[in-house]
Amino acid sequence: MSNDLQFSLDGVSVCFEKGETIMQAAQRAGIYLPHLCFHPDFSAHGSCRVCIVHLQGKTVAACTQPAESNQVVQSNTPELQKARLRLIQLLFAEGNHYCPTCETSGNCQLQALAYDLGMTHYHYDPFMPERQTDGSHPDLFIDRDRCIQCDLCGRASAEYDGKAIYTLSGRGQNTQLVFRSPSGLLGDTNAGADDRAAHICPVGCILPKTGNYQEPIGTRLYDHHPIHDIGNLRKEERGGSS
Amino acid sequence: MLKRDTEWLVPNSTFPDWNTERAEQMLLQQHPHPFSPERILQSLVLLQLRFGAVTNPMQEWLSQKSGVALTDIRALMSFYFFLEQDKPPRYHLRLADNIVERHAGLTSLQESLTHRLCSADCRIDTTSCIGLSDHPVSLLVNGFPVTHLGPHNLDELCALIINRVPLQKWPRSWFAVDNRVHHKGPLTSYPYQRGKALTQARGMTGDQIIDRIGEAGLRGLGGAGFPTAFKWHWCKQQAEPVKYITCNADEGEPGTFKDRFYLTEQADQMIEGMVIAALAVGAQAGFIYLRGEYVYLYTHLERCLRRWRDSGDLGQDFDIELHLGAGAYICGEESAMLESLEGKRGIPRNKPPFPGTVGLFGKPTVVNNVETFVCATYILQQGSAAFKNTGNEKSRGSRLHSVSGDCRQPGLYELAQGSSLRTLLELSGAHNTLCAQIGGPSGALFFEDQFDTPLDFENPGRGGSVMVFNKDRSIVNITRHFTRFFRHESCGFCTPCRAGTVALDQLLDQYEHNPALQAKSREDMQELVQLMQHSSHCGLGKTAGLPVLNLLQREPAHEQ
Amino acid sequence: MKQAKLKVATCSLAGCFGCHMSFLDMDEAIIPLIEKIEFDRSPLTDIKSLSDCDIGLIEGGLCNEENQEILHQFRRHCTILVAVGACAINGGVPAMRNHFSLQECLEESYIRGLGVVDPQIPNDPELPRLLDKVLPIQSAVMVDYFLPGCPPPAAAFLEIINAVLEGRPPQLDYPNRRFD
Ligand SMILES: Cc1cc2nc3c(=O)[nH]c(=O)nc-3n(C[C@H](O)[C@H](O)[C@H](O)COP(=O)(O)O)c2cc1C
Ligand code: SF4
Ligand code: SF4
Ligand code: SF4
Ligand code: SF4
């Protein structure tokens, strides 16, 4: 009976459990679908759109699309890889990403996807938004220039830490990361440096204040290993996979 | 005491001082639980209307009373552009900025207003279309519509403001909204008898009602043209005992104002349609989501609802609540509307599940447009055949078209589904026409060789609204305007739309102004529009690039 | 028969010459390369005028009007224009000034800054006028190829030149696609 619960992903048959999304099933099967805002431990968001796949003539986000029997799903096509490249380029263009100066460079998932998809430049003119930093917390530093609005910190904070500190505010291109404190400063929340939320950011927006820039180039996560081989890892998750 | 009376909801130029008792009393008159988290947005809107702003202390007070974090209240304030935290000026002029108003001289009017009123106690800015494109140039003054502003009455307007004349003393004619229907059809001329359709419905089972709607071939008039009977049937089938009916009166698509007519002239038909839907699917409560731009209709609608309530015609266990939006086009998207009704930022939900399965507060919910409910009442009173016999095979009945722009008689025209664009252009006295935008910016642009296209669900744009452009208009300008509209209204949730609308705007600029990069920007735009169509989370991003596609398809044929 | 040498021009706009240094960093690989290319205008040769070239390598983004002029000159004279390094591609480190207004930047550098003597904002008419924002070169001209990195590794330079010599698009392998 359980044979019924399978679908085809790039020609490979993938089993799934009832209620799973295409992304969840693919991960269990060890197939990497490019993504940024998805994390297996938290509810799906569906905002970065990097995990788009073709599903019988439609384009859907694998992280929110329920898996169904006998679906035919395509992910690794030149067309979709190109679309993902453009989405990554849009994310670069809309923030202020100066990789040479960024602590996360080499460990950054946005950058790693860019490398993997063959990105050499932004393609779009940089938007140069003006965004505020927040250094009010004793142990954490916030550089919103690099935020990609994925709400992973928000979900980790609400669903794992039980604190609901991080969230998104504003509208359109003015969407921004905010913190639940009367002053709006992170330093006035009960955020901890050990919170899951403080370590979940796929880019270099939420950073520890100490111990930075210590990893030599060449030893960082994605210096030699493309993200499709080792997955969306965080520094402290080396050896694991997500 | 719940009285829902809003005698204060009239054009005001002075606002009472805020204090907690006054605020609490006002909120309690509108709703028994103004501080419950799902009411928080409505309370913000009401505070804004009553006191002219929701200042920091008010936000803090509301946060304390409701337990909703101040940060979340600020997040609402930053999403809904009609909520303001600065103390209000005596006059806040929001000029409607649709392309039709631009063509009617908006830019120079705004310049001279800004210049002449620079030292007056007033603020001048623009807002997206306010549903009055047939009265250009229109604006909201402290939230209420003033129509037909032009060089002929500019002096007078400035004098009123400089002389600090209270808004209540402004000439009534300034606020006049003309809802005349220039070409009538069944929906606008049948002898409606209040309650007759409902009496019919009460004598039927839910399935029978749905069958009636299905036989008539009614399809949703909010944009997508989804079969209404199917939607109701799906909702009815759900095992969950609690269900809701919601009426989408957000009418945000620029150039569209047909719901304005129904809300003003046929509110009873709309309410009756909602009660019929509730009977059909077994719903316990209904909600009307009225766009903030139509706040001038709020009291009128509350009164209509009260009459229905008082006469017992809403039924024993059914009531309808009126909600106000606050300047966010995206809240017309059904799932964003549900989020907004729940008191949150209007971010569209993931689908599936669709509202029919998991809707408002997680319960199965019917979402229909105002006109769809009006049609349901028509069908129950006049019979399925009466509806079905108008229109064509796949698009039954008739509908009201909003016509604006370069024609002699902008306004409302009811035509059978499938009537040609040419007919509508002729009726409205369009002359020297270059092209017409059908169904708003997210619809389609038709040129002369397409004027015989039937306006129905099977053709691009699907009808409903027509903006007419004559041969002096520039397609590039029109395209830029629509593109900026989407950029301004993107909710910001997903990458392709949040960043894509900005990139598209930049590319359009490059296309127009940098000859060296013209070919490249053309290619880039084509590709980006496709990306947005395919990868966006909701309909806004999926359609936001269509105006650019229209432009590229026509260039260089129509622009030198 | 000996092939005509590839003519290469280079320049540094709003950059730090780091990219140029990296180019020279290819050790002995430069010897065979010199057989195949010759330099036209470039800080490496000190030739000041630009003639028609096969490749133009642009380091740095646009921060003033002189940059704009030189870039357009390069575009006119070079068959293939390459944006070299983060600065040319997205503005790079100099673009970090885009957070501030030009006036703020000038005041910080010449008036309020640490250790400023005789505070005044330079206004010699000979000085090129600064742009409001530092821009990548692709927002002004068509760019054929991009060499990312700060600076791009020497191997990436080699690849681009070999690719042009062989008449194919450049292929940067994983270790040579880097942004830092
Ligand atoms: C961006 C966007 C805006 C929309 N705005 C409206 C609106 O203002 N009014 C409306 O009735 N439907 C609007 N819709 C369509 C609704 O999502 C929904 O399909 C409709 O309300 C369903 O009602 P119907 O079946 O009666 O047409 C919008 C859709 C999108 C994607
Ligand atoms: S967050 Fe990633 S992409 Fe952004 S600057 Fe840092 S390393 Fe580069
Ligand atoms: S701070 Fe990081 S985790 Fe949080 S929304 Fe921004 S990019 Fe995502
Ligand atoms: S497409 Fe646009 S409006 Fe829709 S969810 Fe994405 S960002 Fe929001
Ligand atoms: S990219 Fe890096 S090395 Fe090259 S000029 Fe810019 S700062 Fe210098």
Task: Spell out the key features of this protein.
heterotrimer; A: about 240 residues; alpha+beta; Ubiquitin-like (UB roll); Alpha-Beta Plaits; 2 domains; five-stranded mixed sheet; three-stranded antiparallel sheet; about 20% helix; about 15% strand; globular; C: about 180 residues; alpha/beta; Rossmann fold; five-stranded parallel sheet; two-stranded antiparallel sheet; 6 helices; about 20% strand; binds flavin mononucleotide; binds iron/sulfur cluster
Care to describe what's here?
The complex is a heterotrimer of chains A (242), B (560) and C (180). Chain A has 242 residues and is an alpha+beta fold. Helices cover 20% and strands 15% of the residues of chain A. Chain A folds into two domains: 6-76, Ubiquitin-like (UB roll) (Roll), CATH 3.10.20.740; 97-208, 2-Layer Sandwich (Alpha-Beta Plaits), CATH 3.30.70. Chain B is α/β, with parallel strands linked by helices. Chain B has helices at 20-30, 40-51, 56-66, 70-79, 99-103, 106-116, 154-162, 186-189, 196-202, 206-216, 228-237, 258-265, 267-281, 298-310, 334-341, 370-382, 384-388, 421-427, 475-489, 495-498, 500-513, 518-535, 539-543, 546-554, and strands at 91-96, 122-127, 139-141, 144-146, 181-183, 244-249, 285-290, 319-324, 365-369, 398-405, 411-416, 433-438, 444-447, 465-470. In chain C, the strands form two sheets. In chain C, strands 2-1-3-5-7 form a five-stranded parallel beta sheet, with helices on both faces. In chain C, strands 4-6 form a two-stranded antiparallel sheet. The chains are: A alpha+beta (242), B alpha/beta (560), C alpha/beta (180). Chains in contact: A-B, A-C, B-C. The A-B interface holds A 44, 46-50, 52, 59, 61, 64, 66, 83, 86-87, 90-91, 93-94, 123-125, 127, 148-149, 164, 167-175, 178-182, 184 and B 60, 69-72, 74-75, 78-79, 81, 328, 345, 350, 352, 487-496, 498-503, 506-507, 510, 524, 527-528, 531, 534-537. The structure holds flavin mononucleotide and iron/sulfur cluster (SF4) (4 copies).
